[in-house]
Structure formats: structure tokens, C-alpha cells
């Protein structure tokens, strides 16, 4: 009997709604760095509730000390950033209660924690959630998303296919 276990691969190239709310085009987010796709291709999401869900299945590679950003690596090699709000780093983690740690394995649509939308609003900051594939230029083959509309948190949105994947 072995005491070591292999991390089971999650063969899931799908993208999931990071909250309940409205899918918006990345070009329409208020942060110009993301809107110009300088960090990679992806989408914006305007939340109507504070529950935050994993936008992908994979390994957590980043939990920012201010909890405003989470990074993931999907098993297909795509690296995904979930950035919660614009300039929310200035709030030093106050509106966020994140229940995962770096190295954890998550499934797409899994509840990760909460973002206090009222606190973000009171600070006069944008609460938009931004999901980008940071290695777009060398790894992303295709990004498939539906037309902008309202989704429940954790709902499947589309897929991100890595180069060489079929």
C-alpha cells in the first residue's frame, strides 16, 4: 500500500461564471490594461451577489495577500487569473473572504469564498470580476464564450482550448 497519491487530472477545459451576474465583453471592463487584453484574452463579469466561484478546474497557483486576485493552472496548461474588482488591492483584503490556498485543486464552479459588494461600492470602486488567460499568446488556441447575458454563479460559460488539444 502506497502512502503517496497522484493528483488526479481534471479533464475540464470549460470556463464557469465566477459569480451570479452578467457576462460582459473584456473590452467593456473599466480597467484599460485588461480591456486592451494586455494581460490576455478573457471576459468580464458584473456580479449581483458576493459568492465567488472558480472560473476553471485546476490547481490554485496564486492567492494574492490582499485576496483580490486568484491564479489557476488548468490541466491543459492554460493559466487563468481571476481579478476581483478594479483597484480593490487598495482595500487590503477587507471585502474578501477567500477559502482556498495555493496548491489546492478546485473544480470549475466550486465556491471559493465571498466578496462584499457593498464594501467595494462604498469605496467607490468597480466590483467587476475579470477572468483572463494570461498565457494567451503561446497557449490559447480558442476561447469560446456565449453572448453577454445573465448567469448563475458556477454555471458553465464556454471553453478555453489549449494549443495542441483536440
UniProtKB/TrEMBL annotation:
Pfam families: PTS_EIIA_1. GO terms for biological process: phosphoenolpyruvate-dependent sugar phosphotransferase system. Residues 147-166 are annotated as: Disordered. Its main location: membrane. The keyword Translocase does not apply. GO terms for molecular function: kinase activity. SUPFAM superfamilies: Duplicated hybrid motif. It is a multi-pass membrane protein. Residues 31-135 form the PTS EIIA type-1 domain. It comes from the Bacteria. It is found in: Cell membrane; Cytoplasm. This is PTS EIIA type-1 domain-containing protein. It comes from Dellaglioa algida DSM 15638.
